[in-house]
Amino acid sequence: MTRYSDGTPRRFPRKLADWERRNGLGRLVRKAPPRDRPTYCAPASITLNEGNFSPGGIILVTVMRRHTVDSTLSFELIERPATGMVRVLQQVGDDDELLHLAERRDAAELWLAKTGYRNARLEDITADEVGADVVEGRAAAWLARRHTPPRTLISTIAAQARRRAPGSRPLILPMAIPMMPT
Fold this sequence. Notes:
28% of the residues lie in helices and 32% in strands. By secondary structure, the chain is of the alpha+beta class.
């Protein structure tokens, strides 16, 4: 689970919806690298699942929020998946999306059988991965698995930070991002 915040306290009931858009909690479900297209450039981003509305056990609406690395929000890791848990992942474009996080492999297989995702795959969370998160930080472990040189990402982030308006809040990167390798 990841908490994000703009640093302002929760105060005014009339402005609550605006405050909740900038402060919340979610599970990381997707990480996307920067994309350069002929008509636009998109910075690296993460997508958080903030919850499902499911009356009667049937999910009707899933709330997802996408945040770019140049966001003014700060991100805090509040829960890591434990060793032995299993991710249910699905390929979406060039990225993987987390569909479900199960306590055990048999629970993940049961969830997959019930929901009917055809192209999903199961991935165990290993002690090596959890150790890499602690020693290197999640972003560094993710970069190593993606075979992206860290300098390239750092220089990209630095360039984005230089383009920020003077006097704006400093760029705070989500360096400890849980759960989702690609």
